[in-house]
Design a protein that fits this description.
By secondary structure, the chain is mostly beta strands. The chain has three helices and 26 strands. It binds 2-acetamido-2-deoxy-beta-D-glucopyranose (NAG) (5 copies). Keywords: Membrane, Transmembrane, Transmembrane helix.
């Protein structure tokens, strides 16, 4: 065969393959049309759904009351009152009063985006200067659902205006409490994944030197007898806390995962430790806290100081696989894969708030950090 002949044969094969692939894609699109994102707005609640997961929030508060997925009507703790299942909260004080813990409760609800591919809703609360004993902070809690995405995102925009009173913020976090009869297996890292005790096991156990550490003397699961449970066992450096959560013992098993794609919105830097998931079953993402550090990491706003910050988005990822009945790490491994995908997608391009700085609006710094001490060391630096 001559060279030209070979070449043209190659072209034919290549052309045929391209045409074939196009056909498959076109056909594939028509055949695997995924359900669209929908908002169902009632007087006191709104449900976001995408055919995979339904999330119901209260209006105007923005409390997560229900998450339906994988054949389970509500993954959240239905034995708790509706305001104690999924929420953002804050611990704050002023020098003159005691520390107060407060849930962020919106007083107005707004649909920010409602298309086939994305829904974004907002729950805003605005400080009222004549109620001086209230937290001097405005908040805008956002919840986002994307098409074809098993889970939802949440982020918050918090703000103080000029002239507002002094406030100390000790702790700011988002919390999810799951069905305790369903979720028994927890995974924090490859080294820390295990079957966990029940909340009642802490009540029947013996409190040790501090109230968080409890010796399990009569646990529901006898295998755990003699162990100590303490939520601080599961604390992790910010830099390593990219995904953690629980796997249910339902059929099929369901994984409920907190994915934190980046640290830019957490105080304390990469080596700051904080809580992750613990007996409850509770799933946290902590953005500000004094844990393991003390007062230095409390955010202290003086009288008059202004501030604005976007916190998140974090991703609540749900997965399910019947093979996980025998091996829950299947869902942990899948959650890690999804975490890597979310990390690679950071900074996200979907949040609608213009306060969230998109990829195209960000710069990159590369170079070297010169630490000029007696030995003069050159350290390569990159913000990735
Ligand atoms: C989820 O929402 C869709 C659309 O609103 C609804 O048809 C479906 O019944 C809901 N599923 C569950 C389990 O609540
Ligand atoms: C409020 O918090 C600050 C900073 O952590 C602390 O110094 C102060 O003692 C606290 N005040 C009260 C009354 O708890
Ligand atoms: C602010 O608080 C005052 C005192 O409680 C109340 O009378 C007023 O209606 C509030 N204003 C708004 C905008 O909520
Ligand atoms: C379920 O897990 C098995 C074993 O890891 C895997 O082969 C299979 O692809 C998974 N199924 C889904 C739907 O992810
Ligand atoms: C390091 O600091 C010393 C003293 O200030 C200065 O003389 C020297 O030039 C500096 N070295 C570099 C590499 O900048």
């Amino acid at each position: 065969m001559g060279k030209n002949m070979q070449l043209s044969l190659l072209y034919v094969v290549e052309f045929t393959m391209v045409a074939f692939t196009l056909l498959l894609v076109v056909d594939g699109r028509r055949m695997i049309e995924t359900p669209i994102v929908r908002l169902d707005i009632q007087t006191n609640q709104v449900t976001m759904s995408n055919g995979i997961v339904n999330v119901t929030l209260s209006i105007p508060y923005g409390l997560v009351m229900s998450i339906s997925y994988g054949g389970v009507n509500n993954l959240l703790a239905t034995q708790n009152v509706e305001k104690n299942r999924g929420y953002w909260d804050i611990f704050w004080n002023r020098t003159t009063s005691k520390r107060a813990r407060k849930k962020f409760l919106g007083n107005s609800f707004e649909v920010i985006m409602d298309t086939e591919n994305q829904a974004e809703i907002s729950f805003k609360s605005t400080w009222n200067a004549s109620q001086s004993d209230e937290l001097p902070l405005n908040s805008d809690l956002r919840f986002v659902m994307l098409r074809d995405t098993p889970g939802f995102y949440t982020y918050a925009i918090v703000e103080r205006l000029e002239g507002w009173p002094l406030v100390y913020i000790e702790n700011l976090r988002v919390v999810f409490k799951l069905q305790q009869d369903m979720f028994h297996y927890m995974a924090i890292s490859d080294e820390r994944k295990r079957i966990m005790p029940m909340p009642v096991d802490r009540e029947t156990g013996k409190v040790l030197d501090y109230k968080e550490a409890v010796l399990l003397t009569n646990p529901t699961n006898p295998d755990l007898k003699g162990e100590v449970d303490d939520k601080y066992f599961y604390a992790t450096d910010n830099k390593d806390d990219r995904v953690h959560g629980w796997v249910s013992s339902t059929n099929p098993p369901v994984g409920f995962w907190m994915i934190i794609p980046n640290d830019e919105f957490r105080t304390g830097g990469p080596y700051k430790q904080d809580l992750t998931s613990h007996v409850g079953p509770t799933v946290l993402s902590i953005f500000v806290s004094r844990h393991f550090a003390g007062d230095d990491l409390v955010i202290k706003f003086q009288q008059g100081e202004r501030w604005k910050k976007v916190i998140g988005p974090v991703f609540l990822y749900l997965n399910s696989n019947s093979s996980a009945m025998d091996n829950p790490t299947i869902l942990w491994d899948d959650a890690k894969r999804r975490m890597n995908q979310e990390v690679a997608n950071w900074p996200y391009d979907f949040p609608v708030s213009e306060e969230y700085i998109k990829s195209s609006q960000r710069g990159i710094i590369r170079g070297q950090l010169l630490v000029n001490d007696s030995t003069t060391t050159l350290v390569p630096a990159s913000n990735g």
